[in-house]
Amino acid sequence: MVTSVGRTAAGTCAAIRAGISRARPTRELAALDPETQDLVPSVAHTVSTLTEGFRGIGRWVRLGRLCLESLVTSRSDWRQTGLSVVTRPISGEFLLLEDEDVPLAAVTQSLVGPLCKDLGLAAVPSHGRLVCEGVAGLATALREARTALEQRRLERFLVVAVDSWIDPTLLGMAAESGRLRDADNPVGFQPGEAGVALLLEPSAGNSGGVVVEDARTFAAAEHAIADPEAAGRELAATVQAVLATVPQDSVRDLVLDLNGEEWRARLWGAAAQRLGNRLAGMRVHLPAASMGDVGAASGAVGVCLAVQAFERGWARGQRALVMCTSESKLQGCILIGGGAA
After folding, report:
1. pLDDT reported for residue 331
2. Please, how many CA atoms are within 13 Å of residue 27, restricted to the half-sphere of its CB?
3. 8 Å CB contact between 270 and 168
4. Mapped to the 3 state alphabet, what secondary structure does 153-164 carry?
5. Of 122, 124, 97, which is closest to residue 109 (Cα–Cα)?
6. Among 109, 150, 237, 326, which one is most buried in terms of CB atoms within 10 A?
7. What's the CA gap between 109 and 33, in Å, rounded?
8. How crowded is the C-beta side of 28, counted as CA atoms within 13 Å?
9. How many whole angstroms separate alpha carbon 53 and alpha carbon 187?
């Protein structure tokens, strides 16, 4: 994992637990100071010099290659490996195209191609896929990976989630819609960026390892940013279905992607109201407090946080629940098991 507060999963998760934040002014967008009427740089959580000078797909590639570095050196043969790259939905405006029709084949080659090259693959394999569904796309990718591994079609599966709000087009759109946090808007979000790589392998029975027990998505009737209460009610139903077969006290860690925006708090509030006692005793983690909103990578950050909790012994129970909510219709949640009976 590569974020503004760490260059590894262990380092980032330790920083989140310690409450460390490295927000700094960014040159990509300036805001008007209400007191001085001067333009001042907006605050963002950037991966410092590692992504400076890159934008758009190029920045995603940079983040993806950085988070793959430790995995690339751990194996020499990746030919029987599935690959899904999770990103935000891609628009023609984001790609600076006059036409809104996005050439997904070209985008896949531009983004997935360099990652395959790092893995020693000559070309993007047939099982190399781009999942442009935003943060909930992680649940989609994990579900597909689990199916492929259970059917023994592949030896392992690599899911890479990358995203960055540090882009003039995206920041401009967020500023115009009043979503950024500043002196006049205390309930906005601070932009961030991250790259996360998750390596999945077939479960070895009762090996005591960390496992993906469930990963579900649903499409709300309306975009969550327009009707967060309705999305929250549907989210509660999905969470109840995920937790229906596990003991009440086994899920003790909850990773939320609350980012400071009011609509997101209303979404989770509506869900929590219906989940009631099912949330009792859970410890809540809020990664965005340390690294800002990292978009489509936020769910993968939450999964890494859960994995580190189990591997390093600070998890409270046998399972952790990771929420994957977004401003679009697609929402999701992921249940991570720590392998303990």
Report:
1. 96
2. 6
3. no
4. CCCEEEEEEEEE
5. 124
6. 326
7. 42
8. 26
9. 29
In the three-class reduction of DSSP (H, G, I as helix; E, B as strand; rest coil), residue 119 is classed as: coil
Q: Which amino acid is at 142?
A: L
Sign of CA dihedral 47, 6, 135, 62: positive
- If you count DSSP H runs as helices and E runs as strands, how many of each does the chain have, helices first? 10, 11
- Tens of pLDDT, residues 263-312: 999 999 999 999 999 999 899 999 999 999 999 999 999 999 999 999 99
Cβ atoms of 167 and 269 within 8 Å: the answer is no
The answer to pTM > 0.70 is yes
Cα 277 to Cα 179, 215, 248, 319, 322: the distances in Å are 32, 22, 9, 17, 18
Distance between CA atoms of 12 and 24, rounded to whole angstroms?
17
User: What is the rounded CA–CA span in Å between residue 227 and residue 229?
Assistant: 6
- Give the E-state strand segments of 87-207 in sequence order: 128-131, 156-164, 193-200
Structural tokens at position 69 = 């570095």
Q: Which two tokens stand for residue 78?
A: 């990746």
- Angle formed at CA 126 by CA 63 and CA 160, multiple of 5 degrees: 20
Which residues are 160's β-sheet partners? Answer: 85, 197
- pLDDT number for residue 104: 85
What is the homologous superfamily of the domain 211-337 according to CATH?
A: Thiolase/Chalcone synthase (3.40.47.10)
Residue with tokens 């005793």: 281
Token reading at 271: 């869900």
pLDDT along the chain (341 residues), means of 10: 95 96 83 68 88 91 92 80 93 83 86 90 79 96 92 90 94 90 88 96 70 95 94 96 92 96 97 94 96 97 96 94 95 87 40
CATH superfamily of 9-200: Thiolase/Chalcone synthase (3.40.47.10)
DSSP state of 77: -
Residue ranges of the chain that CATH labels 3.40.47.10: 9-200, 211-337
